[in-house]
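Predict structure. Chain length: 202.
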Amino acid sequence: MHERISPGQALQFCKDVEKFRLFFLEDPVSPEDIAYFRLIRQHSTTPLAMGELFNSPHEWTSLIAERLIDFIRVHLSQAGGLTPCRKIAALGEIFGVRTAWHGPGDVSPIGHAANLALDLACYNFGIQEYYPFPERVQEVFQGCPIMKNGYLYANEAPGWGIEVDEKAARKYPFGSFEAGERQKLNGGWGVIRRRDGTLIKQ
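Prediction complete.
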């Protein structure tokens, strides 16, 4: 849902989709409205996932500890990296909240490799969002995670297992792409926040 509707609309939507038995409903309200999760949880059984815009433990701690969400899906680099996210996962494990780390097309292969490393280390792994990389990205970032039959496979190289080929990268300068293609490289997102950070809601 990407936090684009009002909390009241989010609550109604969570109730309306119960009959479809979703795997989870993602980001029903914006981070500044997380107190509404208490109300949503009281009135809906739809599994909830939240966190891709989270930056601070003050945003996720109460949601996990009060069992107001079913999946935590923070963006690893935004939440502080691998170590803080491993701690988030451990907290979630205590309260039955599973992981679903943020992994869209605007996360680099290195970010996806970090997500996968964390997935392999978490007992409460839930699901991993993943974006298949085009050939030119795989040419620059050698060692990308590979998806086969719905499963991601890490390579056995040291560290994240990714090597950056700087010579190949020179062939694809960012400015050389058309405007529409640049937007695709950023996950296809349009503008959803004003310059001051205020969310643009529908």
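Summary: The mean pLDDT is 89.
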